[in-house]
Amino acid sequence: MSTTLIFLVLSSYFIVLILIAHFTSKNATSETFFTGNRQSPWYLVAFGMIGASLSGVTFISVPGQVMNDGMGYFQVVLGYVLGYIVIAQVLMPLYYKLNVTSIYEFLEKRFGIISYKTGASFFILSRTLGSAIRLYLATIVLQLFLFDDLGVPYWLTAVITIALIWVYTFKGGIKTIVYTDTFQTVFLISSVVICTIIISQALNLDFFALFEKISASKTSSGGSMSQVFFFDDPMAKNYFPKHFFGGMFLAIAMTGLDQDLMQKNLTCKTIGDAQKNMYSFTTILVFTNFLFLLLGGALYVYSNSKGIELPMNDEKVITDHVFPTLALNNFGKIAGVFFLLGITASSYASADSALAALTTGFCIDFLNFNKREEKQRQKLKLIVHIGFSLLFLIIILLTKMYVTANPGTDLISLILKIASYTYGPLLGLFAFGIFTKRNPKAILVPFICVLIPFLCFYLDKFSANLFGAYKFGYEMLIINGTLTFVFLYLSSFFTTKKSN
Q: Is 141 contained in some domain?
């Protein structure tokens, strides 16, 4: 694809986003920014959440990962389903009953101000790191296939990427994002479907023949690329119970205890609409993740059939570069255009909602926003929004330095690993608040929530010495949350106060 075509496609895309922002942010107040005035249609929220949940990392890393792990990631996706049921039936009714803007207000009502601030702080840490790393992938694709040819340095690419998000979210906030995410999810799913169809046609294979071809292909470890379930080795990271139950608790923590995704649900008119949204979202998400894995297998079948040399570094395939390289260089202009739109949509749909949620969380949880005048609210909201935009930029640049120093980094595993440490304390706090009537020793809560992730990091790092050949996978989140729960329970013996 030519640089001119890429520039025109992306320019047109962002013009549409800015137009959507213009029409949805008319007469917007701070309440519009944070809650969408609780008037969002549930079906738009459900569809748009797909883009916000998947991100550019899923768009690129999940297909690339098939070379090493087959379709084992689908075990995690199946675990998500159980997690989303828990969210719909346990957490969402709680949030609607309390009528919260920030979901961490539950911790204040249940435990007091210290636990509330601790939970909100861990969300800010988790979402800032995760979203900035996800957005990094979009900057890399733009740099490789557009800005390098224009002689633009990487740091400026990162600045432009952040600035574009800021332009269309700073006024309308979550109300705008419900509509822009719906628009972006259309391109995300379309790009995967179109690229898979183009590969099938290029190989003269129908869907079933393509899947058979993928099944006959081998991963780097010698297994079938279509293998989903792994029951053989309890010590391995991809052992089914680890992936399945890890996926369940990842969904609960990264969706149900995350202000970003819950903020969208809380814009629905009623709890019934919000639950319909969650179940619809779950169904679409499972189907979409399967499409990504199918596409991943198809990419390697195509490259092997055509004798295409894959991007390498130190004799290892750079799996995160496989999809963009083939889509932009080998599949033709239509696939290239939809790939660009898909990676842009997935990255921006995730990052824009995160930026709005972080702004919401910081304003509500730390700046006593609800007690201020509207004029003062608007000014503070703008300052905080700019502040988090700059923080995203710094993390993106640091991620670039890390990946450069560690070639072959699997970003989706890195993000989920970070989540297992940073969301664990939130999981323990909410579980303790919901399932017990005890109160932890307030002053000990921040120390417990900081200590446990470091303890889990130690267990993971030295697992070979401590537990033989055992390797921790996504179940580390469960261990993290459980240890937090236990320590909170022990601390409750130092206080006599109990919840009613």
A: yes
Give me the domain span that covers residue 127: 3-414
Rounded to a whole number of angstroms, the distance between the first and last alpha carbons of the chain is 64
DSSP SS3 for 70: coil
Q: How far, CA to CA in Å, does 429 sit from each of 403, 423, 425?
A: 33, 10, 6
> Based on the structure, what is the number of domains in the chain?
1
Residue 11 has pLDDT above 50, yes or no: yes
**Is 230 domain-assigned?**
yes
User: What CATH number is attached to the domain comprising 265?
Assistant: 1.20.1730.10
CA–CA gap between residue 443 and residue 213 (Å, rounded): 59
pLDDT higher than 90, residue 84: yes
pLDDT at 48: 65
The answer to whether residue 341 sits within a structural domain is yes
Mean pLDDT of 282-310: 88
What whole-number distance in Å separates Cα of residue 486 and Cα of residue 492? 10
Tell me whether residue 297 is in a domain: yes
| Full DSSP string of 150-214 | TT--HHHHHHHHHHHHHHHHTTTTHHHHHHHHHHHHHHHHHHHHHHHHHHHHHTT--HHHHHHHH
Using N-to-C axis directions, what is the helix angle for 174-202 and 3-24, rounded to 10°? 150
